[in-house]
Amino acid sequence: MPSQVIAVANQKGGVGKTTTTVNLAACLAAMGQRVLLIDLDPQANATSGLGLPKTEGGSAYRALLGEEPLAERIKATGCERLELLPSELDLCGADVELPRVENHLQRLALVLEPVRRDEGRDLILIDCPPSLGILTLNAFAAADYVLVPLQCEYFALEGITMMKRLLDQLRASGTNPKLQLLGVLMTMFDIRTRLSQQVVSEVREHFTEAVFDTVIPRSTRLAEAPSFGKPIIQYDPYGAGAAAYEVLAQEVLARLGRTPAEAH
Question: How far apart are CA 249 and CA 264, in angstroms?
C-alpha cells in the first residue's frame, strides 16, 4: 500500500506550522509509524528543528527539476523510524524555475511516486512554505490530505476559509481530485485569554468535525525545542506540549484509519 501523504500548510507565517509538522512526525514515529518528513520550505526550519544541517544542494530542488531521484536526498534523523528530506535556500529558485517546466504543478507528485511506493514507509508529511506559491501548490497536488494549523487569533477564520476555497479549486480543476482536508488544528492556545477561547469556539462552530479535538497550548518549551534540534517529545517529554502532540498523533491516526498497534 502506498504511503499516505499529508501536507501541513497555512498561507500565514507564525502559526505553528513547522512546529506541528516536526512534532507530529516525531510522535507518529514514536507510535510505530515509519515517517518521512519533507521540508519544502526554503527557510528550512523543519531541517534545523530536527538537528540536521542546511547543506547546499541537499534539498528536493534538483529532483523537482527532473535532474535526480528524490530518494537520493533522504536522511536519517535522531528519531527512530523518522526520516527527513532536508531543505535549504536553493528551493527559493523553484518559484522561478518550475513554471518553465512541463506539468509544473505536478512535479512533486511525479518524483514522489517511487518514494510513496517504497513499502518501508507509512506516512509522508510535507512542511509547506508560509504562502500559496508554487511549492505549496505542488505539495497539494501530491498530497492525499491537508492539515491546517490555525493560530488562536482574530483573523483565523479568514485564513481557513481561503484555504478551503483553494482545496475546492484544486479538486474541481482536476489538479488533485482526491485531496481532502484532514483537519484544522488550533495552535498557540492561551487558556488565560478570552480571545483564544472565543476563536476556538467560533472555528468549531463553522467547521465542526473538521477541527481536531486536540488544541496545542502556547508553550515556551515548544518554542525552545527547535534551537536544540529536537522534537518536543525528546526535549521536554513530560510537558504540556509533548502531551498535546501525542494526543494529536492519535487523532491523526484515527482519521487515517490507522492504529498505533500497526507498529513495525
Answer: 17
Pairwise CA distance, residues 237 & 125, whole Å: 22
Strands (E) in the chain, as ranges, are 4-8, 35-39, 75-76, 82-85, 123-127, 145-151, 180-189, 211-217
Instruction: Point out which residues pair with 217 in neighbouring strands.
Output: 189
Starting at the earlier edge strand, list the strands of the sheet with 145-151: 75-76, 82-85, 35-39, 123-127, 4-8, 145-151, 180-189, 211-217
Q: CA–CA separation, 19 vs 23, rounded Å? A: 6
Domains of the chain (ranges; CATH) run 4-256 (3.40.50.300)
Q: What is the pLDDT of residues 2-43, one digit of tens each?
A: 899 999 999 888 888 999 999 999 999 999 999 999 999 999
Q: Is the full-model pTM beyond 0.90?
A: yes
